[in-house]
Amino acid sequence: MMKAMSMTFKQKGDDDYFIRLLSYLRSQLKENIVEMVPYRKSVIRIKTDKSSYMLKGFHTNKRLRLQEAFTATLRKEGFSKTYLFVHPQIKEPLFFEGTYFGCMEYIPPNRIPFSFQSQKNRQEGLELLEQYHQVTSSFESRYRTLIPKGIIIEKWRDRGKTFSSNISTLKYFINDKVLADLINWAQWSLNGMEKHRSMFLNEPFCILHGDVAHHNFLRDTNGVLHLIDFDLISIGPASLDYLQYANRILPSLDWSFDRLAQFPQYEDLLNEKAFLHALAYPADIFREWNRLIREGSYRDHKKYNQVMDLTTGQFYSRQKFIDRLQLMTN
Where would I find the Aminoglycoside phosphotransferase domain in this sequence (predicted)? Predict the structure, then answer.
């Protein structure tokens, strides 16, 4: 039985790929596979006659081994709210058509998906992230030669350059005034971050998660919140994760500085000029437009409307928020 094969996959050949993958997995696992549900090409849930697992693909065996070691260290050092890699009986390491597959515990999701829409979720996500930072700060030195250092200024400068290089295309979709404001906010933000860059370099360090989007927080059927997906881990100050988290939740806060300041995790950070400058950077808008143009997916009305809403839907609330940041840093 393979229920997921009735799903529609966007890339040509995906149906054939999953049929081949299922055949391969059945040849390798000693447990009988009764169901296979692909979420993406490299993320697949399988149910056997003994248990359920999540399979995740990696380009190299080295990356897979790093993830296995890191999640094991997390659990050993006291952070239990995530998955472990497991090793069901297999004939040999899972390697299929250029991809190394790791096998993880399956965490049954709650019927209500986690989102940043509720204050309870936003606070609980922050508390879980804080626990994660506390645990990883105790062993980050062991991983300094294995994972990169977290960078933000250089990454955002490159993102801004890509956005500006697309300006002739962007003018078809965004009016000149909004475009000019976005680019000016980005420049003001980067200038301030550069001036006060020591905040992003100073220890204490932890292992940053690197992708604190809502889909990387998973509430299980018992109501316990888990942190998942450590593909983008790096070494750096916790403020970098908190900055990204703020970028993610501010739209749900209607870009209210006062509502952001109510979270105790931001109490000290909002007194730092570097952090205030960083909050002004339109990272989300630049990221989504760069992707839309790179993939040519502005022809997809649904994706286009989502990015336009991100750009203009709360533009004036965001503008008011940035005006306050600029007043506070003068």
Answer: 45-254
